[in-house]
Design brief:
The protein is an alpha+beta fold. Helices cover 30% and strands 25% of the residues. The strands form three sheets. Strands 1, 2, 3, 6, 7, 8, 14, 15 and 16 form a nine-stranded mixed beta sheet that branches. It has a five-stranded antiparallel beta sheet with strand order 10-11-12-9-13, with helices on one face. A hairpin with a 7-residue loop joins strand 17 and strand 18. Helix 3 crosses helix 9 (382-397) and helix 5 crosses helix 6 (277-297).
Length: 400
């Protein structure tokens, strides 16, 4: 085994993790956790001049407190630049988390999620910098990237300027549980949105004079299900998944105002995912056709139909790395050196890796002990966290 893997101070690593778990930073409100990470890096010996923030928050289309945190570590030996990434934000369910240790786990008090997703990643990148500097370990140039708004659209990775990555040739993203798992690909997602404008009328006196936007939406979703576009989607030309997430009215209110009025407006939002962008688009178009058919079926007494607008836009692109690609080979080698058995995975969820790969930096994602994420049962497995620290250090220091 590479001797550098034995250099990890596990107690110090756990202290970093506990500290970061106690700092609130839900998606879009990452300023406090970014400051805590920056402070920890400087205490570890990283000069303030090597720590910077980009201006991605000015490009993200929703309010975001701060840009991505980026750290440049000069190499102590020649080699292509490596990128290590993670995200700063947590889901809103983590607000107010009170972490505590329970055996070989860190848990919350049971009223909130914990935030191991992704404070484990934040701690590991700090531990990586701290260990490299403390032991003067040889390594190529390294960039550390802490993104914002991963949990609400992968915005930090999506909107970043690739020039800020310093020419990194590969990336290790820390955002998983089992260190044996190596995520080498992930689905892409297309979001769709439909607005249905019907016609109000008294539902008791003259229902035939109305055009129910609710009925158009219901018929459309039933049609999408019949045609095989809802849920798990398997067609001769592709496979994927879909879901309807929001069925409501204006400004986040309920669709309709009263039971005695034919509903005149409905807004429905959904998603489509697939290993290929083309088939994610095909799923979205399947829903569009279903809504068009439903519109044609629901008419008032004079044959008038609802007015409908359907839009669909890509959310993030899919990617899939070959096992022979340099970053997969590097990760495989490091994992094997630690006695791990690489389990190559293709994720059905989006990651910052989707956009980093799109930006020209092939990216794998490793695990670091986060478990039961986005639930009040969330916890961090500390032995897996320690293994994740050792794996990141090996990935940074093994010879090419």
């Amino acid at each position: 085994m590479n001797s550098s893997a034995t250099s990890i101070d596990v107690a110090a690593a756990e202290d970093h993790l506990m500290r970061f778990l106690s700092v609130e930073g839900v998606t879009g409100q990452e300023a406090a956790i970014a400051a805590a990470v920056s402070d920890a890096l400087q205490k570890a010996g990283v000069p303030a001049s090597a720590i910077r923030f980009d201006e991605v928050n000015k490009r993200i289309p929703v309010p975001t407190e701060t840009g991505n945190l980026i750290v440049d570590l000069p190499g102590t030996r020649p080699g292509p630049r490596l990128l290590f990434s993670t995200h700063l934000d947590t889901v809103p369910l983590c607000a107010g988390a009170k972490p505590r240790r329970e055996g070989d786990r860190i848990v919350s008090d049971g009223t909130t999620a914990l935030g191991g997703d992704n404070r484990t990643g934040c701690a590991i990148l700090v531990v990586l910098a701290e260990t490299l500097l403390k032991h003067n370990l040889p390594h190529p140039p390294i960039t550390l990237l802490f993104t914002v708004r991963e949990e609400s659209g992968l915005h930090g990775a999506r909107e970043l300027d690739p020039a800020d990555l310093g020419g990194a040739v590969m990336c290790i993203n820390v955002d998983g549980q089992d260190p044996n798992d190596l995520i080498v690909g992930a689905v892409g997602q297309e979001n769709w949105d439909v607005e249905i404008r019907g016609k109000a009328s008294h539902a008791g006196v003259a229902p035939e004079r109305g055009i129910s936007a609710t009925l158009v939406g219901a018929v459309a979703l039933a049609e999408a299900k019949r045609e095989g576009w809802f849920g798990k989607v398997v067609k001769p030309d592709g496979r994927g998944t879909s879901n309807v997430g929001i069925f409501g009215g204006k400004d986040g209110k309920a669709a309709g105002d009263a039971t005695n009025v034919v509903t005149d407006y409905v807004s429905i939002k959904g998603e489509a995912r697939s290993p290929t962008s083309a088939f994610a688009t095909a799923i979205a178009k399947g829903f569009e056709n279903a809504f068009q058919k439903a519109r044609n079926e629901v008419k008032d007494h004079e044959g008038e139909m609802a007015v409908m607008s359907f839009t669909h836009t890509p959310s993030y692109p899919p990617f899939n790395l070959d096992e022979g690609s340099p970053v997969v080979q590097r990760a495989t080698r490091a994992m094997t050196m630690l006695g791990l058995k690489p389990n190559y995975l293709f994720s059905n969820g989006g990651l910052d890796a989707n956009w980093l790969d799109k930006h020209g930096v092939p990216t794998v994602t490793i695990g670091a002990g986060q478990a039961e994420i986005h639930t009040i049962k969330e916890y961090v497995n500390l032995p897996e966290f320690a293994t994740g620290c050792r794996l990141a250090l090996l990935l940074a220091t093994i010879e090419d």
